Amino acid sequence: MTIETSSLGDRSYLAHDAEVAVVVDPQRDIDRVQALAAELGVRVSHVLETHVHNDYVTGGLELAQATDATYVLPAGSDVEFEHTSVADGAVLEVGGMRVRVLHTPGHTHHHVSYVLADTGGGVRAVFTGGSMLYGATGRTDLVSPDDTVALSHAQYRSVRRLAAELPDEAAVMPTHGFGSFCSATPTSGDASTIGEQARVNPALTLAEQDYVDTLLAGLDAYPAYYAHMGPINRRGAAPVDLSPPEPVEPAELRRRIEAGEWVVDLRDRTAFAAGHLAGSLGFELSINFVTYLGWLYRYGTPLTLIGETPEQVAEARRELVRIGIDEIAGAATGDIETLADGRPLRSYPVTDFAGLAKAREQGPVQVLDARRNDERARGYVAGSQHIPLHELADRIDEVPRGEVWVYCGSGYRASIAASVLDGPGRHVVLINDSYDAANAAGLEDERPTEGPSASTRRSPR
């Protein structure tokens, strides 16, 4: 059974024999796993980690403690709590299931995959974590720049080992690769087998050096919050807290904004543009919310949420604990006019690329591209300034005063950038449109930019 966490591009798994279950790479909010186990009427006896995760805080330790299960991590994980350590070749007998450990370094040095078989030895599936993904492999630069090349070669050999030792019909069950920045290159598909991967996975279709060169050429920046995940997972995360944040009154909201705290508005990007508290930040609660808030947020900064409903705040809190943002200073819900406490709201216009083209017919327009560098290299609005969203806060003084039109690949990142830029001296216009429309509007300059810079290679999100 698959437990999807689409906001992080990850999957967790529960495998069972109708009586006992193993859980692989669980997310922090373990209530989803517990609910599934209860629905199936099975007891969780083992919780398995393929590696110490860099893109989310695991729920493995708490789940194992809550279910009295054996908590299994690869040898060399270097964690600070009690667990069962397994190395290459180890076999776990779990009811009518047999789980064999394969050391598959690459994503990390200690990374393992778990081969699921029946008691007769028939292989059913392999949980590959950040090793073999669907049409790709896990990135190899999260440990250390000094280790990246060696880990890239190790990743190639690990994926080849999986293909050589497992039957073609074995299902491949990766943790990463559904939009996760832990994949080295974009993935494709929702299901696969070893046999299918033999035909499409670059580690299985390219020579080793060609694969390594391709992987290294694609590696680029990843979310800044990754730096916090490994240390939290090695220490052992505290029990998850999904309780409602304390309510915050309008006057206190204003005080927090004026004190430089983060006050994040979860409403739809167009609703934020139509009216918001001056100094608040717009992070629409959608599939990209946690990735980009985590990327821009400075851990430890007091964080207050604004939502339309308590349910919206609760959903945001669930997303935030997945990346270790546990301390929410409070939340305010309801009508934004009421929350303004008599002060005027700020607003800015929303348009599309056709609107930009029409404006340019009237005269020069300052345009900011908030996309990643790999996206810009494939084409951009002629004459636009380029600052990737994750660099904007540190480079905001580079954006000229006056009117500035902001775009990205879909409008989501542009809406965050617009909220960062919105303030005295600037007049923001949000281009809430798919970048594909830029070419149709006659705005695109397809000349490649000079060289790569700190960005990633993912489809626009």
Describe the protein's architecture and organization:
The protein is an alpha/beta fold and 461 residues long. It is 31% helix and 21% strand. The chain contains 17 helices and 22 strands. The strands form five sheets. A six-stranded mixed sheet has the order 1-2-3-4-5-6. A five-stranded mixed sheet has the order 7-8-9-10-11, with no helix packed on it. A five-stranded parallel sheet has the order 16-21-20-17-19. A hairpin with a 3-residue loop joins strand 2 and strand 3 (20-24). It is globular and about 75 Å long. It starts with a strand and ends in a 16-residue tail after the last strand.
Portion of residues in beta strands equals: 15-25%
**Uncertain residue segments:** 448-461
Major beta-sheet overview? 6 strands, mixed
Number of helices: 17
Number of strands: 22
Estimate the global geometry from the Cα principal axes.
globular
Kindly provide the radius of gyration, computed on alpha-carbon positions and rounded to a whole number of angstroms: 24 Å
How widely separated are the two ends? 27 Å
Quick overview:
The protein has 461 residues and is of the alpha/beta class. It has helices at 31-40, 60-67, 148-165, 194-200, 202-205, 208-218, 226-235, 250-258, 269-274, 289-296, 310-321, 336-339, 353-362, 373-377, 389-395, 412-421, 436-440, and strands spanning 2-5, 10-16, 20-24, 43-48, 70-74, 84-86, 91-94, 97-103, 112-118, 123-129, 171-174, 262-265, 281-282, 303-307, 330-333, 350-351, 367-369, 380-381, 385-386, 402-407, 426-431, 444-445.
